[in-house]
Amino acid sequence: MTQVLAAFPDGRWTVEDQVAEGDKVATRWSFTGIHRETLMGIAPTGKQVTTSGVMIDRIVGGKIAEEWEEYDALGMMQQLGALPSMGKAEDKTAS
Asked: What predicted TM-score, i.e. pTM, was given to this entire model?
């Protein structure tokens, strides 16, 4: 998280949905920011990135005891130009 905050100093998280039941809270979020500092070895690109994810927190005594998170890291790397974007599959059955 420290790397993300440094790499995207203008980063903005938005809670899209949040549901709680028992000792767990599920949050669907989105993020947008401009890549201004090194992130995972990727030099600053100045590109705006938008990504989203879901996290589930287990709460004990009013504090987060455990957290599980999944987010679109592939999409973020593609937006930064660190990985190629996926093109449309070619139809090899024609001809």
From this structure: 0.81
